[in-house]
Design a protein that fits this description.
Layout (H helix, E strand, L loop, with lengths): L12 H25 L4 E7 L5 H11 L5 E5 L5 H4 L5 H4 L8 E5 L4 H9 L4 H20 L3 E8 L2 H13 L9 H7 L2 H15 L6 E5 L3 H21 L33 H19 L8 E8 L5 H9 L7 E5 L5 H4 L5 H4 L8 E5 L8 H4 L5 H20 L2 E9 L2 H13 L9 H7 L2 H15 L6 E5 L3 H21 L9
Parallel strand pairs: 1-3, 1-4, 2-3, 4-5, 6-8, 6-9, 7-8, 9-10
Helix pairs in contact: 1-10, 2-10, 5-6, 5-9, 6-16, 11-20, 12-20
Length: 501
C-alpha cells in the first residue's frame, strides 16, 4: 500500500513555480463555486507519520485558498469535557457547514491507531471501531459531504532523515519533539496498524490518498491537485450522492401493530395519581443525586402525536430535578445554520456531560416521521436514517449515557377532544395551529411511520417505551416509573459499559 510513496518523488523549483499560480487560481475558483452553490461541505483529514509534513501542508492550503471559508481543527488528547461524551462528539460539533471546507489535523482515526500501537485495542476491537467510522463517513457522504483523507508517508530511514533535517534548521527545530523521536521506535507497529486501517476504511465515498512526504514541493502540489480535481468533479456532478441502499419497508399482513395493540383505556384515579406521582418524583430526585450518576448521563427523548401530553410529561420530570442539572431541548423546524449540517448535528451538540440530563421535546426521529410523511427528504434519506440513528444511539450508550425513549400515543377521538379544548381555553390557544389540524388528515401515514420507527430502532441499548396517553395521569406516572427503573438498573450494575478513551 505504501510502496509508491517510497520512490523518492520530487518536484524541481522551476516546475513548482510554474504550476503553483495556475493551481491557486483554480482552487480559489472552485472554492468560490463551492461557496456559491452551498450544496455540500468538504471534509479533509490529514494524517500520517511524524515529520511527513502534515502541518506544513495545512499551512500551504490556508495560504493558497480563501481562509474566510476554510476552517482548520487540530485534535490531540481529549479534554475532560470531551471524555464525558462519545468519542466522536468533538468531531461531530466541528464539522464544516455546506459551502465550506474543514481540515482536520488529527481525526477520528488517531485514537484507534494509537490504541492499537499501544496494545490497548485488540484487532477485533479495532475492526469494530473502524466499522463504526465507515458507517459515520457513509452518513456524511449521504448527507452530501465530500470526504478526502490524506496519509503522508515516509519510510523508516526517510522519517529519521526528515526529523534530523528539521531539527538542524532553527526555523523548524521546534517541530521535532521528544515524542517524535520516541515514535521512531514504534515505526513498525505504526505501519502495521496504518496498513490495516487504510485498507479497511478506503471506501468509494471516503477514499484514502497516500502521499510521499519527503519533498515539500511534491507533497504540496500533489495534495492541491487532488483537492482541486475532487472539487471540480463534485461541483459538476448533479447525481444523487446516496451510496448504500437501506432495506425496504416490508408490507403489513394485517391491521395489528405495536400501536393498535396498546390498551388506551388504562386509567389512574386522581388520588392514586397524586400518591404515585409523589413516589416516583421522589425516587427520581434521589437517583439524580446518586454518586454513581456522576459517571453517567441521562437522555430523555419524547415523541408522540400532537396533544399527546409530551409537555405535561416533561414538566413532571423536571419538577423532580435540580434546574442546574437538566436542559430541555424543544425541537422545531431546523434553522438555516442547522440545515447546512447533517440532520443529526443539531442533536449532537446537545449531548450532555456526566451527571446531567438532556430532555428532547421531539427528537432526531423527525427524519423518519415528519420528514418522511411530509416529503421533506427523499425515501433513500429516511430509509438509511434508521441505521444512522441506531449508530448514534450506540455511540451514546457506549459512552455510558442512559437513553430512554417515549412514544406517547392517543386515540383519534382523544386528540380531537384536546384540540377543541385548546381552541376554547385562552391560555392554551398558542398550542394549537393550522398545522396541527392538517397533520390530523395524515394520521394514517404517521401511524405507519411510527410503527416502522419502533420496529427498526427499538434496540437492547435504547428500547422504545410506548405510553398509553389517553389518560394523562396514567401516562405521567408511567413515564416517571420507566425513567426510575432504567436508572436503577444502570446504576446498580457492577460493571457499567466502559467508556471509550
Amino acid at each position: 500500500m505504501f510502496e509508491s510513496a517510497e520512490l523518492g518523488h520530487r518536484i524541481d523549483k522551476e516546475t513548482f513555480r510554474a504550476e503553483v499560480p495556475k493551481l491557486r487560481e483554480a482552487l480559489l475558483d472552485a472554492q468560490f463555486d463551492l461557496r456559491e452553490q452551498g450544496k455540500f461541505p468538504v471534509v479533509i483529514l490529514v494524517s500520517g507519520v511524524d515529520g511527513a509534513g502534515k502541518g506544513e501542508t495545512i499551512n500551504v492550503l490556508c495560504e493558497w485558498m480563501d481562509p474566510r471559508f476554510l476552517s482548520t481543527r487540530a485534535f490531540s488528547a481529549p479534554s475532560d469535557e470531551e471524555r464525558e461524551r462519545p468519542a466522536m462528539w468533538r468531531f461531530w460539533r466541528t464539522l464544516p457547514p455546506k459551502g465550506r471546507i474543514g481540515i482536520f489535523s488529527g481525526s477520528w482515526y488517531s485514537d484507534p491507531i494509537a490504541g492499537r500501537i499501544a496494545g490497548d485495542l485488540t484487532k477485533g476491537s479495532l475492526d469494530q471501531r473502524l466499522d463504526e467510522i465507515n458507517r459515520f463517513e457513509a452518513m456524511l457522504a449521504n448527507e452530501g459531504a465530500l470526504v478526502l483523507k490524506f496519509w503522508f508517508h515516509l519510510s523508516r530511514d526517510g522519517q529519521k532523515r526528515r526529523l534530523d533535517a528539521l531539527e538542524k534548521d532553527p526555523r523548524t527545530a521546534w517541530r521535532v519533539t521528544r515524542e517524535s523521536r520516541a515514535r521512531l521506535k514504534t515505526y513498525g507497529k505504526l505501519q502495521e496498524a496504518a496498513r490495516h486501517v487504510l485498507r479497511v476504511t478506503n471506501t468509494p465515498w471516503a477514499p484514502w490518498i497516500v502521499v510521499e512526504g519527503t519533498d515539500d514541493r511534491y507533497r504540496s502540489l500533489t495534495v492541491g491537485k487532488v483537492i482541486l480535481d475532487a472539487l471540480q468533479k463534485r461541483l459538476a456532478d448533479t447525481r444523487d450522492q446516496n451510496y448504500p441502499v437501506a432495506p425496504p419497508i416490508a408490507p403489513k399482513g394485517d391491521s395489528l401493530d405495536v400501536l393498535t395493540a396498546l390498551n388506551l383505556s388504562l386509567r389512574l384515579d386522581r388520588k392514586m395519581y397524586e400518591t404515585q406521582l409523589a413516589r416516583w418524583q421522589g425516587r427520581l430526585a434521589s437517583l439524580a443525586r446518586h454518586p454513581k450518576f456522576g459517571g453517567r448521563s441521562l437522555i430523555l427523548a419524547f415523541e408522540g402525536f400532537d396533544a399527546a401530553g409530551k409537555g405535561g410529561g416533561i414538566r413532571r420530570v423536571t419538577a423532580a430535578l435540580d434546574a442546574r442539572q437538566y436542559q430541555v431541548v424543544p425541537v422545531a423546524a431546523p434553522t438555516e445554520e442547522e440545515r447546512a449540517q447533517p440532520y443529526l448535528w443539531r442533536f449532537w451538540r446537545h449531548v450532555p456531560r456526566n451527571g446531567r440530563v438532556a430532555i428532547f421535546d421531539r427528537t432526531w426521529y423527525g427524519r423518519v416521521l415528519v420528514e418522511r410523511v411530509e416529503g421533506l427528504c427523499s425515501e433513500a434519506d429516511w430509509l438509511r436514517a434508521y441505521a444512522e440513528i441506531n449508530d448514534f444511539e450506540h455511540e451514546l450508550a457506549g459512552n455510558g449515557a442512559i437513553l430512554v425513549k417515549f412514544w406517547l400515543h392517543i386515540s383519534d377521538e382523544e386528540q380531537l377532544k384536546r384540540f377543541r379544548e385548546r381552541e376554547n381555553v385562552a391560555f392554551k390557544r398558542f398550542k394549537i395551529t393550522g398545522e396541527d389540524w392538517r397533520n390530523r388528515e395524515k394520521r394514517g401515514a404517521y401511524h405507519a411511520a411510527v410503527c416502522d420507527m419502533v420496529d427498526r430502532t427499538s434496540t437492547g441499548e435504547a428500547p422504545w417505551t410506548l405510553v398509553e396517553a389517553d389518560d394523562k395521569c396514567h401516562a405521567r406516572v408511567k413515564i416517571l416509573r420507566t425513567i426510575c427503573e432504567r436508572l436503577e438498573r444502570a446504576l446498580a450494575s457492577d460493571n457499567p459499559k466502559k467508556k471509550r478513551d
